[in-house]
Amino acid sequence: MARGFCLIMYFSVVVQSITPFYSSKSLEGYPAGYLSDCPGGDREAVITKNSLKYLTMTVVGNGNFLTAKRSTYTYYQMKQLAKDPNMDFSKRTAVYVGGYMDSPSYPVASLLAPQYRRQGYNVLLLDTNKFTVMEYPLAVRYIRTAARHTAEMLVDLIKHGLDPKKLDLIGLSLGAHTASFIAKRFKELTGDTISRLTGLDPAGPCFRNLGPDQRLDSSDADFVDVVDTNIDEFGMAAPIGHVNFYVNGGEYQPGDILWMPCNAFCSHLRSYTVWLAALQYPTSFIAIQCDSVQEARNKNCYDRIPLVTNVVGLGTDKSKTGVFYLATHNNYPYYLGEKGLKKEYEYFQSHMEEITNNDSMKI
To answer: How far apart are CA 167 and CA 143, in angstroms?
Structure first.
């Protein structure tokens, strides 16, 4: 009996030695749990007429995030908003839509607004904070209703000169889908699509398993661009825009401090800081077209023939659609410029090779 057991163990060791294990997504599977599996749905929540006063837009004037004049108008005050001295409907108008628990008074919106003003835009900051400071799946239901009413606000502004073909919506995380619902309802009310919708790492939880009618989709605007930075946790992997930029593969981002890895939340917010930097450096974030999302994840787009490139930001070439891989540095303003087109400058690979191939390391 003992001899038989030894033979079994021997052959087991031999088999293991000639069948090495290689890690793969097909073997290990993909993320599951609350973040991945929240089913979402198409049901809305009710926002009463009295509560609509909490749905506001803030007009931002010239200046930095500390000095710019800000004037806030409720759902019922679009006529007054249209007369604000910092609104000029001959210009393009940018509407920033914050994410979960976001507010125009927080730094994200406050820092973004001056960049759009410098580009010659009117800037409106939508406040849905009243309807998102709650458990996330509840906020998902409320933002659908808040978006529907926001579309009504934009329709009112059309009566005073707003041109939907000069209208950009920019949404971060949950705000990307809020912007989608605004655009969908706007089209229902007017028959027109808005000009541009930019999704900054659109939220995955409660959306990634839904169809195009229930989340951000390329049909929402004349042009939809998406910046993906945390696709397996807070974001979503599907290429749902006309142009989809997968930053460093889209899964996780390098930390600003080398020994502090950029976790899921940090990676999720990187979509915002990359976009902020792209507004300041409009030709510096050069991305490479890929044949698939998996190629972008694997960073296997460098040798594609022909090599097709596009830039992140307001100057994105709308005729070059599909999936793009964007390599960045780990520190703001992140861009690599032309270096981003060469594999040896890819951050993770170059940094890891520097560590593993260094023969002189000692303590």
So the answer is: 20
